[in-house]
Amino acid sequence: MEKKRRFKKVVKYTKLPAKDGLYIYEVVFWLVVVTQIFSGVASLPDKSYGASLMINFAILGIAIIILAIHGRNREVYWEEI
Q1: pTM assigned to the model
Q2: Which pLDDT does position 25 carry in this prediction?
Q3: Domain that holds residue 21
Protein backbone atom coordinates (compact mmCIF):
# COMPACT_ATOMS: atom_id res chain seq x y z
CA MET A 1 0.00 0.00 0.00
CA GLU A 2 1.43 3.35 -1.00
CA LYS A 3 2.00 6.18 1.47
CA LYS A 4 -0.56 8.96 1.60
CA ARG A 5 0.80 12.25 0.26
CA ARG A 6 0.64 15.19 2.67
CA PHE A 7 0.62 18.87 1.81
CA LYS A 8 0.99 22.04 3.81
CA LYS A 9 -0.40 25.43 2.93
CA VAL A 10 2.21 28.12 2.30
CA VAL A 11 1.26 31.80 2.32
CA LYS A 12 3.89 34.16 0.99
CA TYR A 13 3.71 37.95 1.00
CA THR A 14 5.67 39.62 -1.74
CA LYS A 15 6.66 43.26 -1.65
CA LEU A 16 5.20 46.09 -3.69
CA PRO A 17 4.05 46.31 -6.37
CA ALA A 18 1.41 43.62 -6.23
CA LYS A 19 0.22 42.10 -9.46
CA ASP A 20 -3.49 42.39 -8.71
CA GLY A 21 -5.67 44.98 -7.05
CA LEU A 22 -2.94 47.55 -6.44
CA TYR A 23 -3.67 49.78 -9.39
CA ILE A 24 -7.01 51.01 -8.02
CA TYR A 25 -5.50 51.75 -4.62
CA GLU A 26 -2.55 53.52 -6.21
CA VAL A 27 -4.90 55.78 -8.18
CA VAL A 28 -6.99 56.52 -5.06
CA PHE A 29 -3.81 57.21 -3.07
CA TRP A 30 -2.46 59.74 -5.56
CA LEU A 31 -5.88 61.38 -5.92
CA VAL A 32 -5.97 61.83 -2.14
CA VAL A 33 -2.41 63.21 -2.10
CA VAL A 34 -3.14 65.76 -4.85
CA THR A 35 -6.49 66.84 -3.38
CA GLN A 36 -4.92 67.21 0.09
CA ILE A 37 -2.10 69.37 -1.28
CA PHE A 38 -4.53 71.57 -3.22
CA SER A 39 -6.94 71.91 -0.30
CA GLY A 40 -3.97 72.77 1.94
CA VAL A 41 -2.82 75.50 -0.47
CA ALA A 42 -6.41 76.79 -0.84
CA SER A 43 -6.88 77.04 2.93
CA LEU A 44 -3.67 79.03 3.50
CA PRO A 45 -5.44 82.37 4.10
CA ASP A 46 -7.67 80.76 6.77
CA LYS A 47 -6.97 81.19 10.45
CA SER A 48 -7.70 77.49 11.13
CA TYR A 49 -4.88 76.31 8.88
CA GLY A 50 -3.27 74.19 11.60
CA ALA A 51 -6.45 72.18 12.18
CA SER A 52 -7.08 71.63 8.47
CA LEU A 53 -3.45 70.59 8.04
CA MET A 54 -3.86 67.98 10.78
CA ILE A 55 -7.01 66.65 9.10
CA ASN A 56 -5.15 66.55 5.78
CA PHE A 57 -2.32 64.53 7.30
CA ALA A 58 -4.80 62.22 9.01
CA ILE A 59 -6.53 61.49 5.69
CA LEU A 60 -3.15 61.06 4.01
CA GLY A 61 -2.09 58.62 6.76
CA ILE A 62 -5.25 56.55 6.28
CA ALA A 63 -4.60 56.46 2.53
CA ILE A 64 -1.03 55.25 3.12
CA ILE A 65 -2.24 52.54 5.51
CA ILE A 66 -4.85 51.33 3.00
CA LEU A 67 -2.18 51.25 0.28
CA ALA A 68 0.22 49.34 2.53
CA ILE A 69 -2.38 46.71 3.49
CA HIS A 70 -3.64 46.12 -0.02
CA GLY A 71 -0.25 46.52 -1.62
CA ARG A 72 1.05 43.24 -0.24
CA ASN A 73 0.64 40.50 -2.77
CA ARG A 74 -0.54 37.31 -1.10
CA GLU A 75 0.57 34.08 -2.73
CA VAL A 76 -1.00 30.87 -1.48
CA TYR A 77 0.25 27.51 -2.70
CA TRP A 78 0.46 23.95 -1.45
CA GLU A 79 3.81 22.32 -0.74
CA GLU A 80 4.38 18.62 -0.30
CA ILE A 81 5.81 17.65 3.07
Answers
A1: 0.34
A2: 67
A3: 16-80
